[in-house]
From TrEMBL:
<keyword id="KW-0443">Lipid metabolism</keyword>
<dbReference type="InterPro" id="IPR001753">
    <property type="entry name" value="Enoyl-CoA_hydra/iso"/>
</dbReference>
<dbReference type="Pfam" id="PF00378">
    <property type="entry name" value="ECH_1"/>
</dbReference>
<protein>
    <recommendedName>
        <fullName>Enoyl-CoA hydratase domain-containing protein 3, mitochondrial</fullName>
    </recommendedName>
</protein>
<comment type="similarity">
    <text>Belongs to the enoyl-CoA hydratase/isomerase family.</text>
</comment>
<dbReference type="InterPro" id="IPR052377">
    <property type="entry name" value="Mitochondrial_ECH-domain"/>
</dbReference>
<dbReference type="GO" id="GO:0006631">
    <property type="term" value="P:fatty acid metabolic process"/>
</dbReference>
<dbReference type="GO" id="GO:0016836">
    <property type="term" value="F:hydro-lyase activity"/>
</dbReference>
<dbReference type="InterPro" id="IPR014748">
    <property type="entry name" value="Enoyl-CoA_hydra_C"/>
</dbReference>
<keyword id="KW-0496">Mitochondrion</keyword>
<dbReference type="GO" id="GO:0005739">
    <property type="term" value="C:mitochondrion"/>
</dbReference>
<dbReference type="InterPro" id="IPR029045">
    <property type="entry name" value="ClpP/crotonase-like_dom_sf"/>
</dbReference>
<keyword id="KW-0276">Fatty acid metabolism</keyword>
<keyword id="KW-0809">Transit peptide</keyword>
<comment type="function">
    <text>May play a role in fatty acid biosynthesis and insulin sensitivity.</text>
</comment>
């Protein structure tokens, strides 16, 4: 498999994001370590663009979001949140951030966060929004906005859907960080590995995902998130129909035939 590095997103000559690309996998790398990979408006728009890039390509099966430097992301750029910028600019920042987080959930392929370091505020929100999150044992997570008088209300949306309510509220009310092991225990992370194994383990998971049928992954991901908001009866009704629809896909039938014939399936995509 051929990989190439394609830095695409930049502002005023400064690279904000870089990508490693293969036909099935894309690694979006937050590349502003001097600013602790702050989610400035420019960074958010770049991230949005890179997530959307060729989203409908049937070859693409998984996206990984990682970062350069010791901080995964420190959250919003506080210089953009002063009075000088004004409420219209502030609204654009938070609306764009919200759109990025919703885009991750609504994207047709699984998105994995690979975290090595600190993820705070909107950076923690980004981790919580991803479908899978793998972190090194040196990572930590916090929503410390309350300490500077700015409650992490938008990060609370993703955090409150990823961890139990009382855990989320303690993080939000105190601003204190939790370790990677605590984050794993509470459901913010999928797994924690030693730092030197982080990339290897993340890529192992990504390649396992990429070995699956793209149409089946997309159908299943969409159904999973739709059913979460439903009552039990509605959720089963929705997912029962999803399984019927799944059987109507060429890959649904190919997988069953391959299993019965004791061979590997040959997916359409």
């Amino acid at each position: 498999m051929v990989l190439h590095v394609a830095p695409r997103s930049q502002t005023a000559g400064m690279i904000l994001l870089a990508c490693t690309v293969s036909p099935q996998e894309r690694n979006i790398i937050l590349s502003d370590p001097k600013r602790r990979n702050a989610l400035s408006l420019a960074m958010l728009k770049s991230l949005q663009s890179d997530i959307l890039h060729e989203a409908e390509s049937q070859d693409l099966k998984v996206i990984i979001i990682s970062a350069e430097g010791p901080v995964f992301s420190s959250g919003h750029d506080l210089k953009e949140l002063t009075d000088e910028q004004g409420p219209d600019y502030h609204a654009e920042v938070f609306q764009t951030c919200s759109e990025v987080m919703m885009l991750i959930q609504n994207h047709p392929v699984p998105i994995i966060a690979m975290v090595n370091g600190l993820a705070t505020a909107a950076g923690c929100q980004l981790v919580a929004s991803c479908d899978i999150a793998v972190a090194s044992d040196k990572s930590s997570f916090a929503t410390p906005g309350v300490n500077i008088g700015l409650f992490c209300s938008t990060p609370a949306v993703a955090l409150g859907r990823a961890v139990p309510r009382k855990v989320a509220l303690e993080m939000l009310f105190t601003g204190e960080p939790i370790s990677a092991q605590e984050a794993l225990l509470h459901g913010l992370l999928s797994r924690v590995v030693p730092e030197e194994q982080l990339e290897e383990e993340t890529m192992r998971i990504a390649r396992k995902v990429a070995s699956q049928s793209r149409p089946v992954l997309s159908l299943g991901k969409a159904a999973f998130y739709r059913q979460l908001a439903q009552d039990l009866r509605t959720a089963y009704h929705l997912t029962s129909q999803t399984m019927v629809d799944n059987l109507g896909l060429p890959d649904g039938q190919e997988g069953i035939k391959a299993f019965l014939q004791k061979r590997k399936p040959i997916w359409s995509h």
